[in-house]
Amino acid sequence: MTYFYIVNICVIILFACLFFITRKTNRRWSKINDYLGKVTTTVDSIRYGDLTTKITKSDHPTYQNVTDSINRMVETLNDREKMIAEYQSELMNQNRLLESVINSLSDGILIINDKFEILRATPKILKWFGLRKGKNIIGKNVFEYIQLSDDSVDPSNLENVEIFIKHMPSNTFIITSQPLIHIEKKRYVLIIKDVTTEKEIETLKADFVATLTHDLKVPIVAASNMIELFLSKKFGDISEKQEYALSNMKASNKELLNLVQILLDTYKISDKGIELYKDNLSLNPFIESIVDEMQPLAKEAGIKIKFDKEKDLTINADSLQLHRVIKNLINNAIDHSQTKKDIEIHTGQIQGYTTISIVDFGQGISKEEIPMIFNKYYSAAKKLRKVGTGLGLYLSQAITQAHGGEITVTSEENVRTEFCVKLPN
């Protein structure tokens, strides 16, 4: 009996312990479930964009560590969201500014794909194409509105090509295309510019120059003829002083006529290019005739022109145009020869070219000026207070290049300058 009694007591005590343990465990799991519920609620709030929700503090140290970590994460996400919002706002402002700048440009801008379908257009394009709303143009083929002057031109690779806009037939437009890089799909930016005003101004300017030079040339020629009549004593005898004065007038008139002719030739080159009438030309007698023509001018400057006639070379060139090149270079050498050393002319050959060199021993040209001396209207003569348009060297280089050659310059200031005309054999 005693044994069974003890066993029953032990079983009762065991069940009592299990009861209390189970009750305590249930309370603990209940707290865990409550805490997990708070975490779930907070995570759901974060997922739907509410970054102000935080988990309330817990008395249990283990829970508090997790709570602090989650709350810090929420604060960090909140800070990042504010930063991203600021960046987005700044990007939107920059985008609006860029769009305003693009829309205010005088040029029209189109974006097309590789099928020439319009993806975007600026307000200027809509106006030129006769459209009111941008959505009316999206997806349309660009050639519904424009026409190229040359159908053989690749529309995706255009550079200042003249086009015809059907809605504005009286205006002149040019187009330039540029592919967009660093994107997967092929996209092209088309920039269209209205050059109607520029064309009109250019035409007026060209007509003005042509008319001016022609109208100037007529009275100058008339004056030259009259001076020549006086010098030839057609109107009676003249004194030595009168002859000297008339000779100076004749020289000045000739220089003025030369300047007008250069202006007229510059206009012709800009408008029509240089027409060459080539023929086989023997260099020695050709250059010798130019030297004889320029020798009096050199004599006035107190120098001579020496032509080194070693070997007579033959080239295929336009004698009239080449005469102007050599004459201009000799005249340029005379103008810049400040010493009494003679001007030298040499001919020779290098690989593929025949060369004509004009050498003077005057003031020379600085290294900074050499790249500019063939530019239109640049004139080194201004440094010496002499008359000079700068067009002479420009025309000489243009004529030489039309022959397939070039003029090169080597110079050492106050020592020596050499202009070398290179013409293909």
What can you see in these coordinates?
The chain is built from 8 helices and 13 strands. The chain is α+β, with helices and mostly antiparallel strands. It folds into 4 domains: 2-98, no CATH class; 105-194, Beta-Lactamase (2-Layer Sandwich), CATH 3.30.450.20; 199-272; 279-424, Histidine kinase-like ATPase, C-terminal domain (Heat Shock Protein 90), CATH 3.30.565.10. The strands form 3 sheets. The chain has a 6-stranded antiparallel beta sheet. A hairpin with a 7-residue loop joins strand 4 and strand 5. The radius of gyration is 45 Å and the shape is elongated. It starts with a helix and ends with a strand. The model is unreliable at 380-388 (pLDDT under 50).
Key phrases:
8 helices; 4 domains; alpha+beta; elongated; six-stranded antiparallel β-sheet; 425 residues; 50% helix; five-stranded mixed β-sheet
How do the helices and strands line up, and which of them pair or pack?
Layout lengths: L1 H46 L13 H43 L4 E6 L4 E4 L1 H7 L16 E3 L12 E5 L7 E7 L7 E8 L1 H36 L8 H33 L6 E4 H18 L4 E4 L5 E4 L1 H17 L7 E8 L2 E8 L30 H12 L3 E7 L3 E9 L1
Parallel strand pairs: 8-10
Antiparallel strand pairs: 1-2, 1-6, 3-4, 4-5, 5-6, 7-9, 10-11, 11-13, 12-13
Helix pairs in contact: 4-5, 5-8, 6-7, 7-8
In short:
The protein has helices spanning 2-47, 61-103, 123-129, 196-231, 240-272, 283-300, 319-335, 391-402; strands spanning 108-113, 118-121, 146-148, 161-165, 173-179, 187-194, 279-282, 305-308, 314-317, 343-350, 353-360, 406-412, 416-424. It has 425 residues and is an alpha+beta fold. The protein folds into four domains: 2-98, no CATH class; 105-194, PAS domain (Beta-Lactamase, 2-Layer Sandwich); 199-272; 279-424, 2-Layer Sandwich (Heat Shock Protein 90), CATH 3.30.565.
